[in-house]
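Postdoc handover notes: sequence design on the structure in folder B. Input tokens:
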């Protein structure tokens, strides 16, 4: 299987920076991280954040979490704030909270977590007491009296979970609330919730080769003033497998992409409905590279079409 490590092609400047301590790693990228407003409040968020599933979650379960400490430090030093996690991501939530306290960055992070005590079955019901207990555990793990965002994970028993989140928001313990889904069969249900519920955010899968949400979900988010956190911008490993050893096309420099990761992230970040893209990683050099996608220019509509056509022309993964 082709991995990001196999595919990542940084420029000479970035490669030189990779040999430096992470505090200087970001110096290769000039300019501030681009931001976009949360539609319901106008608060600006950096376009690139950090997710904590996949390899982040795997490392969080190990005895040595020093790599994750470096990732979090690079995120914040590079101007990023958004950290997306969930109780179901193993030890990610607890470890990240502890590392942030050690680094003294707890207050600099925009903490986005989730709640789901009903599981993944569409008709499963949540026990309100257990849902409240799970949320309280997240407060303790992240070391915050007020959390920035809690979302109903995988659209699980939205009426029960969302009612609790609304109460906590009214009490001032949550700043924003929302729902998430990375399942295409669940998109119609997501659209229904977006149309009928007052929420601040959705979290959804979106990638240059996974563009279905461009037709309905993203325009609806703009219409309803709902923020969008993007998950799986690399299609887990799918896009890396499709790209293989191909060199980055020269025309990617037109919008400042210096690596395949930046190519993929800039595509999704350029959509005006997207508030923040949260790729997961457990490597500081990948975090620095990801942040580079949020600097400089973003592709325009014609460039995005060219990017999509280029990827579509590649053989499918597997």
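Designed sequence:
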């Amino acid at each position: 299987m082709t991995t990001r490590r196999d595919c990542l092609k940084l420029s000479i400047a970035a490669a030189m920076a990779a040999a430096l301590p992470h505090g200087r790693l970001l110096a290769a990228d000039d300019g501030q991280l681009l931001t976009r407003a949360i539609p319901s409040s106008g608060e600006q968020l950096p376009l690139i954040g950090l997710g904590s599933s996949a390899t982040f979650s795997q490392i969080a379960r190990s005895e040595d979490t020093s790599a994750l400490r470096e990732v979090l430090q690079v995120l914040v030093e590079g101007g990023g704030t958004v950290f997306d996690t969930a109780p179901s991501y193993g030890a990610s939530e607890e470890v990240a909270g502890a590392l942030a306290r050690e680094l003294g960055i707890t207050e600099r992070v925009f903490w986005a977590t989730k709640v789901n005590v009903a599981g993944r079955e569409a008709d499963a019901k949540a026990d309100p007491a257990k849902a409240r207990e799970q949320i309280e555990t997240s407060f303790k793990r992240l070391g915050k009296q007020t959390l920035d965002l809690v979302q109903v994970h995988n659209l699980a028993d939205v009426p029960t979970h969302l009612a609790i989140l609304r109460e906590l928001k009214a009490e001032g313990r949550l700043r924003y609330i929302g729902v998430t889904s990375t399942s295409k069969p669940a998109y119609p249900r997501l659209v229904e919730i977006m149309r009928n519920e007052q929420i601040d955010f959705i979290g959804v899968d979106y990638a240059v080769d996974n563009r279905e949400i461009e037709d309905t979900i993203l325009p609806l988010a703009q219409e309803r003033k709902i923020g969008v956190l993007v998950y799986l911008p690399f299609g887990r490993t799918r896009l890396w497998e499709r790209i293989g050893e191909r060199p980055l096309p020269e025309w990617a420099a037109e919008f400042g992409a210096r690596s395949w990761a930046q190519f993929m992230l800039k595509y999704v970040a350029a959509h005006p409905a997207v508030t923040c893209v949260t790729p997961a990683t457990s490597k500081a050099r990948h975090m620095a590279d990801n942040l580079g996608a949020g600097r400089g220019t973003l592709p325009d509509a014609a460039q995005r079409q060219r990017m999509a056509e280029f990827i579509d022309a590649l053989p499918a993964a597997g």
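Context for whoever picks this up: The first strand starts at residue 35 and ends at 37. Don't rerun without checking with the PI first.
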